[in-house]
Known about the structure:
Elements lengths: L9 H8 L7 H4 L7 E2 L5 E5 L4 H6 L5 H13 L8 E4 L13 H18 L3 E5 H9 L5 H4 L4 E3 L2 E6 L2 H6 L1 H19 L18 E3 L2 E2 L24
Parallel strand pairs: 2-3, 2-4, 4-6
Antiparallel strand pairs: 1-3, 5-6, 7-8
Bound molecules: iron/sulfur cluster.
Iron/sulfur cluster binds next to helix 2 and helix 5.
Amino acid sequence: MDLTEGLPDLGALESHIGDCHRCALGDTRTRLVFGVGAPGAELMFVGEAPGKNEDLQGEPFVGAAGKLLDELLAGIGLSRSDVYIANIIKCRPPGNRDPERAEIETCTPFLEEQIRLIDPRVIVTLGNFATKYTLATDSGISRIHGRLFSVKGRKVVPVFHPAAALYTPSKKDVLAEDFQRIGVMLEGDECDEPVAAPGEAVAEMATGPGETAPGPPVDAPDAEGPGDEPEALRLF
Length: 236
Ligand code: SF4
């Protein structure tokens, strides 16, 4: 079955993926991690790839990082059942190495289809890898976390990966602040306001009408030179 015409729902996509061995990770994984959450979620999280615990349990973000994610969600009045959580790559790379280009190219059409079917208002990328891939940028997460990007009509907010925040208390505080902004954005109308278009770099995330959230400084779009800011979302 070809994905280009689109599938009717997530169940059909999961069946389509099946016991996938389209890339080499299919031979080394324990369980494929499809994703969990509400099929019509307004908020979708995209991480990198399953880790050891996820590989064993078949669910994204379990263990200590998953517990922190649950706490952050609770802090903005949400639970896992309110959102959708998936990864760029559906199977664990051995030893938690970075996914290879061929693996990404083979697997990401599944994530693209998930995003199309869920149609979230906001995508939150968790950590450097998911952010750099999603926004097609070389900018590190420390520089662009908490900012609101708009690419092809979708809002994308990069934040620190919960696993990184576990080991660095200051990152945990920043992550919690970024989640508060996401919560405010979801509650208000800000999500429907125009933000930066593809190629127009970054917009600050507003906390309310006429108000700007405290947070990381917003550099001039050309601060790092042309092409250094996110310009195109490779996922959709
Ligand atoms: S990583 Fe993706 S493409 Fe590779 S085997 Fe797993 S599901 Fe299939």
